[in-house]
Amino acid sequence: MNKLVSTEIICTIGPVSLNSDTLSAFQELGVTLLRINLSHTRADELADLIEYVQSTCSIPICIDTEGAQIRTGQLSDSNINLSINDVIYIPDKLVMGTKDQINLYPEGIINDLEIGDLIHKLTFCLISTQICSI
């Protein structure tokens, strides 16, 4: 007896693929599900993003709700070494990250932090930070 096997193709969409040409190409290639990762999408942008995708193609959408993760912004050097008790400044605007200052994503998250808050595994590394002053 022959068994039919169905293959599903799931594509994660983000800033680079959010255009009509790419979404149309996904549809032509047989993509069966588009995944939106909330780690890279602000909650206030989600409804507009879904509306745009649905107006561009008919591929079903799923939301990856693992949760927003706090990440560092762009760094001037991929090897910034921090030591225990180093103090870094976290401004509320975009800056180029250095050993002395980094910005956090999602943008504006710094406004939700309070003195004493801990941020564990920053950027998926073994870095823990504590907010000491605001």
What is the secondary structure topology, with strand pairs?
Layout: E1 10-13, H1 20-28, E2 33-37, H2 46-56, E3 61-64, E4 71-72, E5 104-105, E6 118-119, E7 129-130
Parallel strand pairs: 1-2, 2-3
Antiparallel strand pairs: 4-5, 6-7
Notes on the structure:
- With 134 residues, the protein is an alpha/beta fold.
- 15% of the residues lie in helices and 16% in strands.
- The chain is built from 2 helices and 7 strands; from the N terminus they run E-H-E-H-E-E-E-E-E.
- The strands form 3 sheets. The chain has a 3-stranded parallel sheet, with helices on one face.
- The radius of gyration is 20 Å and the shape is elongated.
- The model has no long low-confidence stretch (mean pLDDT 81).
What structural category arises from helix and sheet content?
alpha/beta
Q: Please describe the biggest sheet, giving its number of strands, its sense, and whether it closes into a barrel.
A: 3 strands, parallel
How do the SSEs run, as a string of H and E?
A: EHEHEEEEE
Rough outline: elongated
Query: In percent, how much strand structure appears in the residues?
Result: 15-25%
Name the assembly state. single chain
Low-confidence stretches: none
Strands side by side in the biggest sheet: 1-2-3
Number of domains: 2
With helices defined by DSSP (H or I, 4 residues minimum), what is the helix count?
2
Helix content: 10-25%
Q: Can you give the mean pLDDT?
A: 81
